[in-house]
Design brief:
Layout (H helix, E strand, L loop, with lengths): L1 E4 L7 H9 L2 H13 L4 E4 L8 H13 L6 E4 L3 H10 L4 E6 L3 H14 L2 E5 L10 H17 L7 E4 L12 H11 L8 E2 L13 H14 L4 E4 L4 H13 L5 H10 L2
Parallel strand pairs: 1-2, 1-8, 2-3, 3-4, 4-5, 5-6, 6-7
Helix pairs in contact: 3-4, 6-7, 8-9, 9-10
Bound molecules: (6S)-5,6,7,8-tetrahydrofolate.
The site of (6S)-5,6,7,8-tetrahydrofolate has 20 residues, from β4 and β5.
């Protein structure tokens, strides 16, 4: 499982404040804490309150690159903000994200190619969030065919079914899980899959439990990657144990290593 740490997001009060005050140390502390907890990459999102994302995104990229070579996942729906981050990037980049709209795909896919970046495609379009599995698959296929047409390698594409909070869209979650499995058979070679895990538990009062139960199930449906809080120890234990049960990792190396630390 490729783990993308979600915590450098202006939506969190401490990070929003650090971005506003250009407090480098707070951002770097958050980056290191996630890496020490097992993050393979870090999501970078200026947050909805950022008044100058074109300045804040490259600033965050530079500040995080000072302390790590890990890939950075540039999280914005605006291509200008993504491009500002790409210009500052030395580390490997994952563009987060592109929707299934041709005018977005026409801009973002060439950018990803130009900068050698990987790409997250979200199954959303101008028509809104899909209401069932078939709509998710249709949008996923639109994204995959745009990549094929533009000669962007599908192995470098992650498809995200868009996870909705269980308290507002309970009936959708099973479809979301099945989408993960079916995205893999859209093309050969397969696209990868990812999702924003914490979305599922928003508004619930048992967030940790909902997150780790959903992650465990998504892993069983073949999930390759997730944007999550790697400092949640119980979540990381559930993740490692799910992979053990699916024989995804050699038992001794990762499982025992994780437990010897206790
Ligand atoms: N798909 C993709 N990218 C994404 C998402 C996705 N990026 C953003 C988001 N969704 C994933 N990251 C988060 C980060 C935080 C939360 C949820 C998803 C979260 N935050 C607390 C909340 O809103 O309750 C904030 C708590 C606080 O303020 O301290 O839940 O789906 N591709």
């Amino acid at each position: 499982m490729f783990i993308i740490g979600e915590l450098i997001n202006g939506m969190y009060a401490n990070i929003g404040k650090a971005i506003k005050e250009k407090d480098k140390a707070e951002i770097q502390k958050c980056a290191l804490r996630q890496i020490e907890s097992g993050a393979d990459a870090l999501d970078i999102n200026c947050g909805p309150a950022s008044k100058q994302p074109l300045v804040d995104m490259p600033w965050l990229v530079e500040v995080v690159q000072e302390i790590t070579d890990k890939p950075l996942c540039l999280d914005s729906s605006r291509h200008q903000v993504i491009e500002a981050g790409l210009k500052a990037a030395r580390n490997k980049i994952i563009i987060n994200s592109v929707s299934a709209d041709s005018e977005k795909l026409d801009i973002i896919i060439p950018l990803a190619k130009q900068y050698g970046a990987q790409l997250i495609g979200i199954t959303i379009s101008k028509k809104g969030i899909p209401q069932n599995k078939d709509q998710r698959l249709e949008l996923a296929a639109t994204i995959v065919s745009a990549c094929v047409d533009k000669e962007f390698p599908v192995e470098n594409l992650y498809l995200d079914p868009i996870v909705l909070p269980v308290n507002v869209a309970q009936a959708q979650l099973k479809d979301i899980l099945e989408s993960i499995r079916e995205f893999k058979i859209i093309s050969e070679p397969s696209p990868k899959t990812t999702l924003g895990l914490s979305n599922v538990s928003q508004g619930t009062n048992t967030r940790g439990l909902v997150n780790r139960t959903f992650l465990t199930m998504a892993i069983a449906y073949g999930l390759d990657s997730a944007i999550l809080d790697p400092t949640d120890e119980e979540l990381m234990e559930a993740l490692i144990t799910s992979e053990l049960i699916l024989n995804k990792n050699i038992y001794c190396s990762s499982y025992l290593e994780a437990y010897r630390k206790k």
